[in-house]
Amino acid sequence: MQQFKKLAIAGAVSALMMGTTAAQAHISYNTNTSLANGSASNPATWTAGVPDGYVGNLPSAWVANIHHHGTQTVSTAGANPVGFETGYVIETLNNKWNPIHSWGNALDMGLIDMDVAGDLTVSVKADVALSSTFMPGFTLWQGWDTSATSSRHGSWNADASNPGNRGADNLSYLGHAATNSQDGGAGYSYNNSNGDHMVEITFENLAAGKYSLWIGGNGTTGAEGKDKGKISIGQQYIASITSTASPVPVPAAAWLLGSGLLGLLGMRRKQVSA
To answer: How far is residue 122's CA from residue 94's CA, in Å, rounded to a whole number?
Structure first.
């Protein structure tokens, strides 16, 4: 019995040292289709709970709650259709993420709530490959909007030089990625082999907390200009949000503790067999 207890203790220490994680998270969608017109998201109808602590006025189409490291996918197909208004889709209006033709009303805005620290990889691509003209671009901000008067109507810019938060409070630029540029992240890639114009980038060593992801089109043609900000091209997209553990070295004392326990077990075995 004593030997069994020691084996159990050693097993528990080993499990702690390995630091295993589980993929647990969920996405809640804002079912209000008037989001495409820049309406505020509060109040709104959410499929899996209201974003915890969101008090801003910027319209948010979804929130990805990351409780443990894993991957969550935002898409029209992945949304729960119960209670949705007719014609509900996850989309951007046109090419207004592009800094040259920027217009905040065309962006699709989402929230990320990370309960754990680590690396955050964001990949965005067209919902329908081979037949789509969607050229994705997206920007990651730290924080959630806290202003009661913020609005996405008006021009903005993709980077920190002119964030154009439209009066939003508590947002800090972290980086962006698009079909032709990247900044602020690592492991940037753009792949159009399947015709879906997939853009991916990793933001390393993010703290647990709240983040905002703004997605739009990076194309240079079609529905450009302030006077055409309401024209909808209906660009549906799929966004994958993956949180992974950052490499953390195991303290030397932990390894010594583990090896010490194993040594004691070895001595015990010799005593029992003697």
So the answer is: 20
- pTM greater than 0.90: no
- H helical segments located in 158-229: none
Tokens of 227: 């006077």
Residue-wise pLDDT for 43-70, tens only, equals 567 888 788 888 888 888 899 999 999 9
Work out the burial of residue 163: count CB atoms within 10 Å of its CB; fewer than 13 is exposed, 13-18 middle, 19 or more buried: middle
For Cα atoms 119, 124, 130, give the angle at the middle one, nearest 5 degrees. 145
Helix (H, G, I), strand (E, B) or coil at 260: helix
Does domain 24-250 correspond to CATH entry 2.60.120.380? yes
The number of CA neighbours under 13 Å toward the Cβ of 142 is: 14
- Whole-number Å distance between alpha carbons of 165 and 145: 9
For residues 35 and 41, the answer to whether their CB atoms sit within 8 Å is: yes
